[in-house]
């Protein structure tokens, strides 16, 4: 049994790697994660891959504390293993790059116990896609860059002052605090919502953004002035 884990990029299907696209076209079985609302990874690939003859299995990952979900992840891994025992080969798709905040890695330890062979196909992350859209580097020469989620960032602001570039993910609930930090410590703020997706929106001035315009898929890049 073999499972491919494929990063499908931030939302633009043309950013899927050639290797990832070939595997997606050939795989008879696809697993896709949801949080109970949107199936974004699936909506990306269906623009370039026919799903007509494929078996699709939804894997629900609830937004709860990690220590409450161990049994749930084990159950999902059992579903994956059971389906693979029939098809022998399958693919788990995820937005961005699998190595960055992908729910797949919660299942990996259980899948390894089942003897499933796994191959990870990298994808373009949201912040790489955003940097390309802006036509600016995240780091040059000896500049230091950090990538984290906004919640972690706000718990220890002083620790981040050494960085020339701060990339913040999951920022939609913390816009006020991020604005205050950028003004106090002289950082320029750039905001990207659903980068690479149909509802993409980019702001080149952090002060022009209102919190009610943002959602879960919003990132902020702070660059030291």
Automatic annotation (TrEMBL):
This is Precorrin-2 C20-methyltransferase. One of its GO terms (biological process) is methylation. Pathway: Cofactor biosynthesis; adenosylcobalamin biosynthesis. InterPro entries: 4pyrrol_Mease (IPR000878), 4pyrrol_Methylase_sf (IPR035996), 4pyrrole_Mease_sub1 (IPR014777), 4pyrrole_Mease_sub2 (IPR014776), CobI/CbiL (IPR012382), CobI/CbiL/CobIJ_dom (IPR006364). One of its GO terms (molecular function) is precorrin-2 C20-methyltransferase activity. Belongs to the precorrin methyltransferase family. It comes from Caldimicrobium thiodismutans. The lineage of its organism: Bacteria, Pseudomonadati, Thermodesulfobacteriota, Thermodesulfobacteria, Thermodesulfobacteriales. Residues 2-203 form the Tetrapyrrole methylase domain. SUPFAM superfamilies: Tetrapyrrole methylase.
């Amino acid at each position: 049994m073999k499972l491919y884990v494929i990063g499908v990029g931030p939302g633009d299907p043309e950013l899927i790697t050639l290797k990832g696209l070939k595997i997606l076209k050939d795989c008879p079985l696809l697993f896709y994660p949801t949080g109970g609302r949107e199936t974004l990874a699936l909506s990306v690939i269906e623009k370039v891959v026919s799903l007509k003859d494929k078996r699709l299995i939804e894997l629900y990952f609830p937004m709860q504390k990690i220590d409450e979900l161990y049994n749930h992840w084990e159950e999902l891994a059992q579903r994956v293993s059971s389906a693979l025992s029939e098809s022998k080969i399958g693919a788990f798709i995820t937005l961005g790059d699998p190595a960055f905040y992908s729910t797949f890695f919660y299942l990996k330890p259980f899948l390894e116990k089942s003897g499933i062979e796994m191959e990870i196909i990298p994808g373009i992350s949201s912040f790489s896609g955003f940097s390309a859209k802006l036509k600016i580097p995240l780091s040059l020469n000896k500049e230091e860059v950090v990538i984290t989620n906004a919640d972690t960032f706000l718990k220890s602001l002083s620790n981040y002052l050494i960085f020339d570039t701060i990339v913040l993910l999951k920022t939609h609930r913390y816009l006020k605090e991020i604005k205050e930090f950028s003004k106090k410590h002289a950082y320029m703020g750039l905001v990207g919502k659903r980068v690479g997706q149909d509802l993409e929106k980019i702001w080149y001035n952090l002060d022009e953004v209102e919190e009610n315009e943002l959602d879960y898929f919003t990132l902020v890049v702070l660059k030291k002035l």
